[in-house]
Amino acid sequence: MRSIALLGSTGSIGVSTLALVREFPDQFKVAGMVAGENLRRLAAQVKEFSPARVAIKNEQDVPRLRKLLGNHQVEILWGQHGAAEVATGADIDVVLAAIVGGAGLMPTLAGVHAGKEIALANKEALVMAGEIFVAAAKAKRVRLLPVDSEHSAIFQCLQGNQREDVDKLILTASGGPFLRTPLNRLEKVTVSQALKHPNWKMGQKITIDSATMMNKGLEVIEARWEFDMAPERIEVVIHPQSVVHSMVRYQDGAIMAQLGIPDMRIPIAYALSFPHRLKGGWPPLEVTRQSELNFLPVEKRRYPALQLAYDALSTGGTLPAVLNAANEVAVAAFLGGRIGFRQVHKIIAKTMDKHAPKHAREVEEVLEVDRWARAHAGALIA
Ligand SMILES: NC(=O)c1ccc[n+]([C@@H]2O[C@H](COP(=O)([O-])OP(=O)(O)OC[C@H]3O[C@@H](n4cnc5c(N)ncnc54)[C@H](OP(=O)(O)O)[C@@H]3O)[C@@H](O)[C@H]2O)c1
Fold first, then answer.
1. Going by fewer Cβ within 10 Å, which terminus of the chain is more open, N or C?
2. Which of 3, 35, 5 is nearest to 111 (CA)?
3. pLDDT at residue 291, as a whole number
4. pTM for this entry
5. Each residue of 26-49: b (16+ CB within 10 Å) or e?
6. Mutational test site, ligand 1, from 6, 12, 60, max ligand atoms within 8 Å of CB
C-alpha cells in the first residue's frame, strides 16, 4: 500500500490519479490533498477518499470548505506552507506533484527535502529550478518518476539500456489545434479554438501551451534535468496522432519508442507502481486500427515559443524561470481575452530580453526572478 500526497487533486491529472486510486484501493491510498479554489470538487474528493489532511490556496476559503464538508473530519491547512505540510507528512510515501505552474515548486521541493519519492507532472517546477531541484533530489536520494507522457515514454525506453549508448531523446508533439492553420490566420484564432486539443483532454494552461508549443519547450527543459541530457541532444518532432509518446535513439541508430492510447492514467500508474505495471480499466492500443503514424519536422515560424525555450535552456541560469513566469502571465491574459494568440510568445520574448540571467544557488533567488518576470510581463500586457 502506497500512501500518496496528491498536489492538485482537483485538476485534470489529480482526477485521473484518483480514478486509479479508486480502481486499485488495495495498492494506493490518498493521505493528503492540495487544491486551489475548486472547493466543491475538493469536498467531494475528501468525502470519498478520506485523506488525513488537505491544503487549499486561500486561508479565507477555509470556513466555506468546512461548511461543504459538514461533519467529515479532516485537518485543513492553507497556502504554500500548508501545501508543503501535506507533501511532507510522516505518513506520505510519494508526492504526486500536479499543481499547475510555478505554484507547485515549493510544495514539491519540500517533498524532496523530506525524502519523499516524487511522481512529477508539474514540469514548471523543473523549468524554474531544475538544477536546484535535481541537486536536492540527489542529496536526499529521492527518486524522481516522470508523469508527463513524453517523459514517461523516455524513461521506459531507457530501461535495460546503457546511458552512455544514448544518442538522442526524441520528444513527440501533436502540433496542437493549429498544425495546419494558415500562418496568416494565427493572429485571429480564438480562445475556444486554442482550447480544442486534437488528442488530449487536459487543464486549460497546458492546452494553450500545446497550441503555442511552449508545452514542448517546457518539456525539453524538463527532459534536460530529468535525464541529465545536453539540450542539443533533445529533439522535437511533430507526430499528429499522439500514439508514439516519445523515443530514444541509441548510437547504433536503433530507436526505442513507447506507444499507447492517450490516457494519462497509464503514465500515472507507471510512476506510482514502477517497476511494475498495472492492468487498469483502459483499453490497450490496437496497432492494426492505427492506419498511419506520421512524423514531421517542427515549422519554426508556426511555433516560435519552442525556440524561446531552447534559447532559455542554452543560456541557462535564471532565464528558464523568466520564460516560465512570462508564459504563465501571457497565457492567463490570452485566456482572459486581453491579448491575441500571437502576442503570447512576444510577451515572453520581450520579458526574456529585459532580464540579465544569473546563476541561482538558492530557490529564493529563483522566486525573486519569478516575481520580477510576472510583474514585467503583466506591465507589458497592461
Ligand atoms: N493534464 C494533463 O494531461 C497533463 C499531462 C502532462 C503534464 N501535465 C502537467 O501537470 C500539471 C497539472 O496539469 P493539469 O492539466 O492537471 O492542470 P489543471 O487541470 O488546471 O489543474 C491544476 C491543479 O492545480 C491546482 N492549483 C492551481 N494553483 C494552485 C495553488 N496556488 N495552490 C494549490 N493548488 C493550485 C488546481 O486547483 P483548483 O482547480 O482547485 O483551483 C488544480 O487542482 C501541469 O504542470 C501540467 O503541465 C498535465
1. C
2. 5
3. 85
4. 0.98
5. eebbbbbbbbbebbebbbebbeeb
6. 12
